[in-house]
Amino acid sequence: MKKSIAAAFAAVAVVTAGVFVAAPASALPASTKIVGGEKAPATSWAVQLEASGGSIPSGYVSNCTGEQITASWILTARHCIDGIGAMNVYHSNSTTNRGAAVAVDRVSAAPAGDVALVHLRTAYALSSYAQLDLTATAKSSGTGTIEGYGLRANAVQSDALYQASVSLTGASTDAYSGRAQHVTGVTGASNHGDSGGPLLVGGKVVAVCSTGDSADPGANTTAGSNYALLSQASAWIRSTAGV
């Protein structure tokens, strides 16, 4: 499912049935992103996504996290592209000094799950790209690492990319009824706005942030959330992005 960036998707990134979609927070009341955790080591492939227009209220922008996987393609959550009119990508790990924007010229939603790809209008070569595990299934034991940009606990503005350790706590579903890995926080947890951020296991991205178990986990560092597994869209990711 591909559309130009000017052809908006139907907006669905909303709070439903008491479960938050880890949606872009900028057009919503202030909330946290990575709750707890620590500043992540600098990486070239963890990028900031800023969307505007479409169904986003005039004068607002919506922010997500993405993972650059080639010089032209970035992985994120499908609900980060729903309803948008335009999107820019920033490659700085700083949220206060983001550097130059790189425009997105088209977006593509996976045929299954809360997974999407966005295409850069101008290729932006990196020294290294996010490594993906397109075969991973949900696990009921072990640990992983989540990453994301933006506000932290008690609505304090993040200044950089943050990360937290989480426990892998079984199979669940994502915002589009797709297959997901459920996680619970060890040193921190995800919240509104971590959308599209990676769940890393063994140093590879296995899933992207989709929903949380509660509408507002607040400053709870052990809150649970659901990450859309890449394996449900593995063939589509390979054929679309050429990885």
Characterise the protein shown here:
By secondary structure, this protein is mainly beta. It is 3% helix and 37% strand. The chain has one helix at residues 234-241, and strands spanning 2-4, 35-36, 38-39, 46-52, 62-68, 73-76, 86-90, 102-109, 116-120, 143-148, 162-173, 179-185, 188-189, 198-201, 204-212, 224-229. The protein has a 6-stranded antiparallel β-barrel with strand order 4-5-6-9-8-7. The radius of gyration is 16 Å and the shape is globular.
Q: Can you describe this structure in just a few lines?
A:
Helix content is 3%, strand content 37%. It has 243 residues and is mainly beta.
Q: Biggest sheet, strands in spatial order?
A: 4-5-6-9-8-7
Task: Pick out the low-confidence regions.
Answer: 1-20, 23-33
Biggest sheet architecture: 6 strands, antiparallel, barrel
Strand content: 35-45%
Q: Count the beta strands.
A: 16
Q: Average pLDDT, to the nearest integer? A: 83
Distance between the termini: 18 Å
Q: Total number of helical segments?
A: 1
Radius of gyration: 16 Å
Helix content range: under 10%
**In one word, what is the shape?**
globular
State the secondary-structure class. Answer: mainly beta
Summarize the helix and strand pattern as letters: EEEEEEEEEEEEEEEEH
